[in-house]
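yo, Fe2OG dioxygenase domain-containing protein is done. seq:
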Amino acid sequence: MVTSSVAAAPRVESLSSSGIQSIPKEYVRPQEELTSIGDVFEEEKKKDGPQVPTIDLKEIDSEDQVVREKCREQLKQAAVDWGVMHLVNHGISDDLMENVKKAGKAFFELPIEEKERHANDQASGNVQGYGSKLANNASGQLEWEDYFFHLVYPEDKRDLSIWPKTPADYTEVTSEYARQLRSLATKILSILSVGLGLEKGRLEKEVGGLEELMLQMKINYYPKCPQPELALGVEAHTDVSALTFILHNMVPGLQLFYQGKWVTAKCVPNSIVMHIGDTIEILSNGKYKSILHRGLVNKEKVRISWAVFCEPPKEKIILKPLPETVSETEPPLFPPRTFHQHIQHKLFRKTQDTLLTKKV
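structure:
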């Protein structure tokens, strides 16, 4: 029975293009959420209130120590205060980022029948490939998005058989982007390590190092929505990763929950959005923040984002606050868990929270 219902579930793109005027009830958010969902284009224009920081990495390796340290301190402070930032002058060329975006967009422009050849099978645990969210919580709510998910690094762990063959340069540009992002991740982890008073390679080692840290790409495709005030592209969550790097097609949608309010991220040209994930928050004993965030949709423009999650191995490493981050006045905030156990804990807690909400 489960299989047949999954097979029958329409892609969100199909719903969007069908001409419906109202969205199915499974996509309507709970009443307590609806009061905070506004027009994303209006939200993005707001100049008052806090703004997601933009960190210019141009001087991150400057030979001038004062200049270099100032740049690194700004990045560290953004990780402490926000846990999210726009990175500019990050060393990845505009051309490569544009080619990655063109390739992903071209895949999603294929007929749905073509994309279905790459469909994943979530029921059997195979999450790589083309998909839409299945209801994995007690409320049965769905998100207004389709996606393509696959491991992109290390290269020897990839399954290229599921990667899109159209467009022809998809594998080439995505692979090069993953390689360059991996180098950027090393640089960021080094700065965050030193910011905690650790040796520069410590955090990278703690999340798996060059051999074990995995980069998973999820291309999120948010079709136009006839009732964007009722839906979310991605519901509120924190990332389980160590770091997350995001490109997007310059259509606003990302919101961060900062100081008790939802703040809409600006569209910063040629930037990469970077999130601190739960893994680094745990290792730093909460000194670096994994911020709650969500994605809004709209009725005028398709939004596409390319998220790359840098994740430690699922079972090999025990995630817990590093001894250097703990003291009598700062006891450990997180119990020891493997990465897999942390994911399961979050899913279980979310299900329990949903059941409690329904009872109320």
